[in-house]
Write a sequence for this structure.
DNA sequence: GCTTAGGTTTAG
């Protein structure tokens, strides 16, 4: 039943239903039977509508009413607190002003929890929206309070606080701790605020509900406190929240929108508040408290610092009962190598950080003890801020003494210096610059995709027993990774869930291809096509077909010389750009037409860079891309048939000192296919066997460049020699050397079926 | 229902 209005105080008496009996406030006791009673009194205080923490956030409002028709002698317990709940609280807030006379019926009588403090009345009245009824007679004299329905608040400057009063204040936060569990029943926020008076006041806020605590992001935020009581502690004025309190915060950035941050559903906020906030922002900007901001980006972190870090969560993992790992970034590159922390892949929640790890962008933050509670709730993608984060140089357990130490980050237990963390809403104005930095890194995801063969996540698990010999015997390979992961048996690796990275020690049981020249592959980084290097028979056929019935082409830009071949009717032509005439043959890019494969091979002994071409309606065109598009000394460069445009746009290479496959490919509209080495090893460590690819890491593994190997028998022999060492012909498995390998376990989609693959990464042949 | 904290560094 809503609040009902009457025009005159005497009408209130008329409204009293016949069955109700008017009762004096002074006479109310806890044992009074409330039924059939009503009270009539003047509203002397009306509080704001607040949400009641103890009653599941139900709206409530507290008012104080005073009995007026009293004998002179009566002075005790003349006023009483009334609590309105639910819709009645809101209705009362809107319809009743301080100074109005009200008639209340169908209340319940409870013991007053604040009687010892306010000495008002041993009881309080509680009015529930469903049953209770309120009649109000608006006061004729508006002088009792402001004309608006909301009470107007006055704010006391911090240098004018008087002991034992309840006040409203505004201030700039100069220190704060995130809410932490007190030794009592509540969470406690402690903060220090200041204002234009330059007086600093400490403040403690107790509340069971975390969400009721002030939402402070950084020093410099503006805070408004309502109904805080003043107390002297250690000769200093302090503020403590008291019944009906509220806290509202704003960011301290000048000219940013004045957006109140609060969990309170109903709070007063008007034009004068806006002004106060803006004045405090202006004043704070001139104070040193802002310039002492401890916020630091990853790019300027140094070892041993305590600092605040604003960042985005990429992934997280619980390490043990007292530690949780948060992998974060802020888009800036750290000057010091960053420590990667070992994690069980099935315990890691969030995206892969491989690409960012490689670029030294991922900070691994170990969050301890009391901070785990806040860290556990964070979802990957969330923006967050660490307060009083510690950076330390650390040596990874398997790290060589001569390698640079890595930077680790610890959010130690405890709350001193405001140590803690909290999430930041994505729309927060102070996140805008961070977000634009992160957006500049979108290409990283593509990078990740290209390198999906090394979806490296670090694996941590107690090692299984590996047989003694394997543990200590000399290894023919050495791992070059810097992460710290335990060595696993192959059996354990096969039981694991990808993606993960691990260390294994195994022998080569078999390898494929047995004909090693077949391990040389061509790979298109654009469409990911991989193919064998065409054999000479196939290439020779393309040359023969192009040369047949070929009429030399005629291009304005080219100087051409032609000669008859041994075969009747076939002309061999060589074209060079006219502005290159007279240059050394090593500096010239020569377009060759009408030759056989054998002939261009002979020519390439004397001419460094040859592009085989044919004529198409008199114009120069590239040959079918089964053939190389460039012969450069011993090397042949191939283009991707799918991705090349063959635009032949820029045949002019003026001033180019050296040609490489990439530069020529770009000029001709060809998508270069890169050389790679691909070998599959069947590994065996006695517990199990598995097929591991050597692909992305193959050049490092053999210390051989694939493109160089393509034109060098010596380098191909070198690869053969290495293979013959790790798997000597006719040897038994036991005779073969052990290999220490870093292994990446990942899945690929093959015909829509997820297939687990193993790839050897970060491992090299030991060069004695 | 009352108390809690009251800034000042973990030690992984």
């Amino acid at each position: 039943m809503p609040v009902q209005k009457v025009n005159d105080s005497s009408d209130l008496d008329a409204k009293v239903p016949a069955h109700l009996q008017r009762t004096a406030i002074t006479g109310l006791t806890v044992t009074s039977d409330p039924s059939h009673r009503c009270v009539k009194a003047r509203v002397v205080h009306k509080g704001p509508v607040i949400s009641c923490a103890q009653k599941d956030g139900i709206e409530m409002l507290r008012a104080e009413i005073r009995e007026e028709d009293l004998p002179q002698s009566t002075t005790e317990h003349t006023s009483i607190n009334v609590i309105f709940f639910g819709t009645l609280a809101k209705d009362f807030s809107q319809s009743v002003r301080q100074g109005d006379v009200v008639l209340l019926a169908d209340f319940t009588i409870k013991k007053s929890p604040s009687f010892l403090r306010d000495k008002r009345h041993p009881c309080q009245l509680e009015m529930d929206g469903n049953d209770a009824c309120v009649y109000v007679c608006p006061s004729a004299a508006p002088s009792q309070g402001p004309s608006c329905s909301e009470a107007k608040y006055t704010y006391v400057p911090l240098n004018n606080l008087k002991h034992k009063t309840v006040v409203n204040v505004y201030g700039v936060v100069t220190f704060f701790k995130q809410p932490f569990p007190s030794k009592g029943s509540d969470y406690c926020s402690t903060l220090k605020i200041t204002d234009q008076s330059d007086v600093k006041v400490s403040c403690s806020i107790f509340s069971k509900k975390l969400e009721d605590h002030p939402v402070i992001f950084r020093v410099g935020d503006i805070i408004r406190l309502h109904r805080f009581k003043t107390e002297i502690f250690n000769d200093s004025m302090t503020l403590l929240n008291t019944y009906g309190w509220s806290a509202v915060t704003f960011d301290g950035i000048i000219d940013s929108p004045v957006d109140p941050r609060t969990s309170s559903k109903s709070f007063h906020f008007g034009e004068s508040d806006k002004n106060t906030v803006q004045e405090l922002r202006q004043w704070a900007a001139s104070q040193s408290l802002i310039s002492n901001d401890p916020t630091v980006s990853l790019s300027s972190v140094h070892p041993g610092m305590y600092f605040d870090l604003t960042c985005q969560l990429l992934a997280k993992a619980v390490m043990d009962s007292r530690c949780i790992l948060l992998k974060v970034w802020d888009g800036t590159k750290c000057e010091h190598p960053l420590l990667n922390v070992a994690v069980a892949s099935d315990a890691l929640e969030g995206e892969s950080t491989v690409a960012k790890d490689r670029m030294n962008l991922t900070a691994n933050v170990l969050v301890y003890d009391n901070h785990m509670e806040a860290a556990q709730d964070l979802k990957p993608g969330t923006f967050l801020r660490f307060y009083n984060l510690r950076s330390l140089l650390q040596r990874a357990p398997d790290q060589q003494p001569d390698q640079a130490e890595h930077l680790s980050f610890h959010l130690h237990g405890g709350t001193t210096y405001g140590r803690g963390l909290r999430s930041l809403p994505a729309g927060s104005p102070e996140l805008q610059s961070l977000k634009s930095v992160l957006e500049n890194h979108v290409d990283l995801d593509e990078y990740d995709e290209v390198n999906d063969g090394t979806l490296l996540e670090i694996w941590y698990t107690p090692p299984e027993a590996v047989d003694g010999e394997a543990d200590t015997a000399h290894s023919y390979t050495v791992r070059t990774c810097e992460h710290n992961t335990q060595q696993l048996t192959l059996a354990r690796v096969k039981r694991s869930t990808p993606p993960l990275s691990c260390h294994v020690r195994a022998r080569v049981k078999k390898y494929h291809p047995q004909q090693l020249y077949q391990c040389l592959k061509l790979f298109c980084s654009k469409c990911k096509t991989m193919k064998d290097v065409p054999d000479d028979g196939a290439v020779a056929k393309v040359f023969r077909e192009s040369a047949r019935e070929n009429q030399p082409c005629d291009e304005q830009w080219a100087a051409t010389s032609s000669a008859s071949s041994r075969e009747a009717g076939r002309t061999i032509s060589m074209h060079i750009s006219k502005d290159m005439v007279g240059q050394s043959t090593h500096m010239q890019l020569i377009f060759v037409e009408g030759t056989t494969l054998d002939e261009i091979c002979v020519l390439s002994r004397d001419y460094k860079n040859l592009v085989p071409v044919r004529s198409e309606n008199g114009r120069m065109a590239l040959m079918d891309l089964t053939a190389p598009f460039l012969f450069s000394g011993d090397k042949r460069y191939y283009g991707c048939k799918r991705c090349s445009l063959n635009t032949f746009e820029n045949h002019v290479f003026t001033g180019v000192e050296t040609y490489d496959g990439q530069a020529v490919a770009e000029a001709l509209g060809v998508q270069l296919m890169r050389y790679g080495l691909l070998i599959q090893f069947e590994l065996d460590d006695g517990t199990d066997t598995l097929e591991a690819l050597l692909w992305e890491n193959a050049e490092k593994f053999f210390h051989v460049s694939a493109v160089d190997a393509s034109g060098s028998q010596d380098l191909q022999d070198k690869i053969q020699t290495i293979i013959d060492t790790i798997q000597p012909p006719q040897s038994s498995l036991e005779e073969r050397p052990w290999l220490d390998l870093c292994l990446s376990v990942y899945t690929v989609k093959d015909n829509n079926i997820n297939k687990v693959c193993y790839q050897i990464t970060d491992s090299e042949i030991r060069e004695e």
User: Anything to note?
Assistant: Residues 113, 175-177, 181-192, 202, 204, 206, 233-234, 236, 238, 240, 306, 319-320, 322-323, 366, 368-369, 388, 390, 410-419 of chain A lie near DNA strand B (CB under 10 Å from a C1').
